[in-house]
Write a structure and sequence with these properties.
This protein is mainly alpha-helical. The chain contains 2 helices and no strands. It has one domain.
Length: 69
């Protein structure tokens, strides 16, 4: 989580700095796009892990419900 926030803050600072410096050139655009793609892929992977944990907890709940009267 901390790395995601750090990378988001760095991307935002870089974007503001390049905008104030006179516009975004090709290299700046590539850096921003790569950072955003990384953030999207990282968030997707995190959501898949959360989904797997949620499914495990649902299975545990079903087993406990069947075990208890």
């Amino acid at each position: 989580m901390a790395i995601r926030l750090y990378l988001s803050a760095l991307t935002l600072v870089f974007l503001i700095a390049t905008w104030l410096n006179g516009g975004i050139n090709v290299l700046g655009a590539i850096v921003v796009v790569c950072a955003l793609v990384y953030l999207i892929l990282d968030a997707r992977e995190h959501l898949q892990l959360v989904k797997a944990d949620f499914e495990t907890l649902q299975q545990l709940e079903q087993k406990l419900t069947a075990f208890l009267p």
